[in-house]
Amino acid sequence: MGTESKLSVAIVGASGYGGVQLVRLLHAHPRIALTYLGGNSSAGRSFTDLYPQLAPFVDQVIEPIDLDVIAERAKVVFLALPNGLAQGMAPTLLEKGCIVFDLSADYRFRNLQTYETWYKSARSDHSVAQEAVYGLPELFRDRIATANLIGCPGCYPTASLLALAPLLKQGLIQLESVVIDAKSGTSGGGRQEKLHLLHSECDNTLSAYGIAHHRHTPEIEEVASTLAGQNVILQFTPHLIPMTRGILATVYCTMRDPGLVREDILTIYRAFYRQSPWVRLLPSGIYPSTKWAWGTNACYLGIELDERTGRVIVLSAIDNLMKGQAGQALQALNLRMGWDETEGLPDLSFYP
Amino acid sequence: MGTESKLSVAIVGASGYGGVQLVRLLHAHPRIALTYLGGNSSAGRSFTDLYPQLAPFVDQVIEPIDLDVIAERAKVVFLALPNGLAQGMAPTLLEKGCIVFDLSADYRFRNLQTYETWYKSARSDHSVAQEAVYGLPELFRDRIATANLIGCPGCYPTASLLALAPLLKQGLIQLESVVIDAKSGTSGGGRQEKLHLLHSECDNTLSAYGIAHHRHTPEIEEVASTLAGQNVILQFTPHLIPMTRGILATVYCTMRDPGLVREDILTIYRAFYRQSPWVRLLPSGIYPSTKWAWGTNACYLGIELDERTGRVIVLSAIDNLMKGQAGQALQALNLRMGWDETEGLPDLSFYP
Amino acid sequence: MGTESKLSVAIVGASGYGGVQLVRLLHAHPRIALTYLGGNSSAGRSFTDLYPQLAPFVDQVIEPIDLDVIAERAKVVFLALPNGLAQGMAPTLLEKGCIVFDLSADYRFRNLQTYETWYKSARSDHSVAQEAVYGLPELFRDRIATANLIGCPGCYPTASLLALAPLLKQGLIQLESVVIDAKSGTSGGGRQEKLHLLHSECDNTLSAYGIAHHRHTPEIEEVASTLAGQNVILQFTPHLIPMTRGILATVYCTMRDPGLVREDILTIYRAFYRQSPWVRLLPSGIYPSTKWAWGTNACYLGIELDERTGRVIVLSAIDNLMKGQAGQALQALNLRMGWDETEGLPDLSFYP
Amino acid sequence: MGTESKLSVAIVGASGYGGVQLVRLLHAHPRIALTYLGGNSSAGRSFTDLYPQLAPFVDQVIEPIDLDVIAERAKVVFLALPNGLAQGMAPTLLEKGCIVFDLSADYRFRNLQTYETWYKSARSDHSVAQEAVYGLPELFRDRIATANLIGCPGCYPTASLLALAPLLKQGLIQLESVVIDAKSGTSGGGRQEKLHLLHSECDNTLSAYGIAHHRHTPEIEEVASTLAGQNVILQFTPHLIPMTRGILATVYCTMRDPGLVREDILTIYRAFYRQSPWVRLLPSGIYPSTKWAWGTNACYLGIELDERTGRVIVLSAIDNLMKGQAGQALQALNLRMGWDETEGLPDLSFYP
């Protein structure tokens, strides 16, 4: 396929870990031409200054952000910026005919008041935000296929919601019982010069953070409520793990009906995900290790029922920068373009 | 203090990670003389063959296990052996006048039937086992002070029970609501040549294990039930973390009384642990990092109340080989001998 | 391309880390059909028992090793076995018309006496061994293209020889001055239950091993001598690093001619490797990080000249299981079949 | 011992990793009272804000740096500041009667021109600098015992010089042959918010830095030249290792006399270090692992002779923040006060 017939794609905010994943994935995608790399603080620098290992494959210079230039140059725009910036760009880009995939929190909420409360910032783009679709393909496949503004999910919500969705949709659990104990590698904190992300601080130690207050809580709750058909309030606790990539969400729910057995639940999951190539259900007694998902777009699910306590425990493992970020955005783009959902995405992680 | 006036102590099962901690701690303790090192597979080898870095401080040879010799040589015996072996030695050692600290599961249960069910092995030493005291000083200080057989707690139960005890004792929580999501470093698996403990398998990845079936569950439940004054069934899920040392238990409980605030709960913890030098309560908003406890006998507790969900979340961090094993055994020995609980135990971890 | 027109390939010794890399790479290669997985201790087990994350992509059962079956089923055979076993299989497989890629040390030496001395084992397959070609494509591209028995290099020799080759070939360095200080991740030790490979032993620590006696020394020396046209004796010291994958070789050589500058040397390297797509020369002042090569077949080279000491220092970074093992074997197979050297091999690592 | 009779000690620059080691060590030292903590950017903050795990043991507030106050409050001053600051403080403190231990590079050089060249900064305190003693006790024990200004060595020079000293002193090696390939954990980079020190950048990867230009080179060379009695120019290459603490220096030297055997060399080392309690010579075939030294002030030396190449290879392992920084400074203080060199310093590391 010649470059001229490929889909032109821009990345705005290319210098971070999410950006470099996108660059690598789009570079390798057979139907895509990467026509623009933009950034703020990194504008003017060659991309391989930031990531020398990518030379000579990605030799572009990062350009200052200019919406006119972007719209001229690209049909599809990925915004990989800090929260709060996309809302100032997406309306214009949409107007100019672009399809926008936003990787920040800006377009993840249907209820903008929730956003305003948890992100402590007022919104003026209500009508645009209402058009946005939550970019979790396994749950909103049809809507993504026709959307022009996709709010790509956060890494924790992806792992958590894929674990919970079949239970919520089928009404199997007591809604107030949900506890999500989530564990993330340090790359989730971004390529930022922060004290708590230093190797000497993170290495060989483990701690929780944002207890009762993490901003991914309302994001999970809003989608969970949609699935359950009623308001869900849940417990979400993130932890920082001494590893670079990966998320494991350990999800605890009390069953409504104590008569179900593990195989019943597994059958429900199988049915729910039968058309989802990136969800991999594990057989009985096998629990996922986050490294299994490295570099792939897979979500591994292990399911256990504790008959003593009446709880179902779901283990959900993803690569936080792939299914939790860039890989999922590309999966959504594949859907939006009518391509196969798996195109351009590696399916087997290397191991160990 | 001359050697002749020191307390003579034996370690049986000195070659593992628990053993080497004991060796190091007892070596440094001003009132103790280490008079015997015994082992099975390692018998005949010099201890510094196994741990060259301890030369020339510990130059003893590991002796084959001989109860007569032990009792002649030592007043106090630490048994650091795989589960199931202590029950064949403790009765004889007690008879010969020794004080026995067992680091295995053998003497942790008051209800031996629970042991028999979860450890799949019958017991014939019921009368001796009934005399054993659970060696968690913060909960059973008085009984340890006069006991001759102390069943030292497992690493997960220590972290979990110290997090739960004030809540259970004061009847503050709904008993069926307890979820313990625990995370351990790899040294908890011992110095054993096992595939799942290889660096290449553990590094940079995270997984759960033993869900709904881990043997520390009934141990936690038995003590929790004693504290609560009624039967407690709880959820316990351990995870293997890519770090060598440390345990973090994240404990979730639903409050009975929604009117309490965080400061009330903290006050209750302060009162409960006012005489416990090794429990360190953190101020509001500070959560412990496991590395803070490295090499010390401390248990750091961070406490949070989520008013949205009505749950109290307690973070409990220890060094699994210290407060979770050898350090705690030495703390119990200090108590038993009438010495200060902190004697011979480092109080400040190095950092980072 | 239909399966029937693909090249049939067997892997013998599929259960180890080298094996699983081959499985994954061959599975993804567009011109190859994986028709046989064999093993000794793992025979009879499903491959996804050993690596559950590969289900459902690789659902084969590992078969007991049977040379007749292999030759019937496959045109190309990869032997990924412990040293000493390939020599009993390769002669028969060659006779039956197979092309054999051996990943052990058995066919890496032209001088079998060297093998016999360093590997302490006599050889009876001298005539077959003489036909073997050393499978380092950058040095022996033409010979590999027509060989039927390829002795694939070890991981340390690959990193070391790619660093040294241009210097030796051009006669730029004092031959007795070569010091190779090499650092490897733990996966180089294989998927073996060994004490020194436990996470708790390897993590957060660093040590040298095999000083003056490591078996990769004579392998490097034999090829280096061929390149230099005279006998080379060098210093090689391997170290075990607390990381899973990657090798860095830091190579020190004293220059013969003190008048050369860094740019001269770089020009020589560029010319030497101008047809080698997997060698990536870094610009001045940039030194490779092993993670840059993860999952790819690349060798990154950074070159520095110290004018104070007259030494050239070459940094050579590879993924020990890719360019250092399975990836390189596949590169050699590509060459042997007349395909592009890069076919089926990922060129961009994910990062971080 | 009452506080009034203890030695009063100040730490200036307490917030970094070197500072916190000093705080911990001085806190635990039986003869020392920590009477002042000072800092620049951290002034006004409680020390336990920075290191919550030290509460309630260290509850001091960090004070703005005021030399008058320091001299009033303390007899001994540790300066743990970035390079270039001590030279503005030490002259005044000495004048006011303090004994000064500087942990920066400012007072490590006898030849200030070397400092000016490598640190690119002019010096105006020549007369004071001439009085300074290089604070490596194993080499300059007598001079430290009477000095008032001690320039404490860098971490790399400590490991390197202890490996080299007996060889240089005895004239056993070819002086131009020395290659030091050094490996350090990330804490050597300090508690600084720098991109290359992020966990996601450091983890699971390895790289060299500062090749041919690292500032520890002239520091090693100056002391090496003193020991050898003639000018030494050597090769020093540092590497960043994915671990928090520890340095391993692998030192290569060509022997002058090919007739010596390993045992001869070991005898020379034993004699050289017979009065040095912190140097631990390992038996034949045992090489040190950096973790052996964790938290202790020990330097482990393993020595190998390669008869094929005529090189002696010395492995030298220390904890970079202890023997490589704070521990060594305290050892020097012990010497200076006429106390036992080992006082207040842990001798056994915990393991693993």
UniProtKB/TrEMBL annotation, chains A, B, C, D:
Subcellular location: Cytoplasm
Keywords: Amino-acid biosynthesis, Arginine biosynthesis, Cytoplasm, NADP, Oxidoreductase
EC class (word): oxidoreductase
Active site positions, chain numbering: 155
InterPro entries in the cross-refs: AGPR, AGPR_AS, AGPR_dimerisation_dom, AGPR_type-1, NAD(P)-bd_dom_sf, Semialdehyde_DH_NAD-bd
EC number: 1.2.1.38
Stored Pfam families: Semialdhyde_dh, Semialdhyde_dhC_1
Record-level Gene Ontology MF annotations: N-acetyl-gamma-glutamyl-phosphate reductase activity
Domain Semialdehyde dehydrogenase NAD-binding: start-end pairs: 8-147
A Gene Ontology biological process term: L-arginine biosynthetic process
Pathway(s): Amino-acid biosynthesis; L-arginine biosynthesis; N(2)-acetyl-L-ornithine from L-glutamate: step 3/4
Reactions listed under catalytic activity: N-acetyl-L-glutamate 5-semialdehyde + phosphate + NADP(+) = N-acetyl-L-glutamyl 5-phosphate + NADPH + H(+)
The organism's place on the tree of life at top rank: Bacteria
GO cellular component: cytoplasm
NCBIfam families: argC (TIGR01850)
Purpose of the protein: Catalyzes the NADPH-dependent reduction of N-acetyl-5-glutamyl phosphate to yield N-acetyl-L-glutamate 5-semialdehyde.
HAMAP family: ArgC_type1 (MF_00150)
Family, similarity comment: Belongs to the NAGSA dehydrogenase family. Type 1 subfamily.
Descriptive protein name: N-acetyl-gamma-glutamyl-phosphate reductase
Gene source species: Lyngbya confervoides BDU141951
Gene: argC
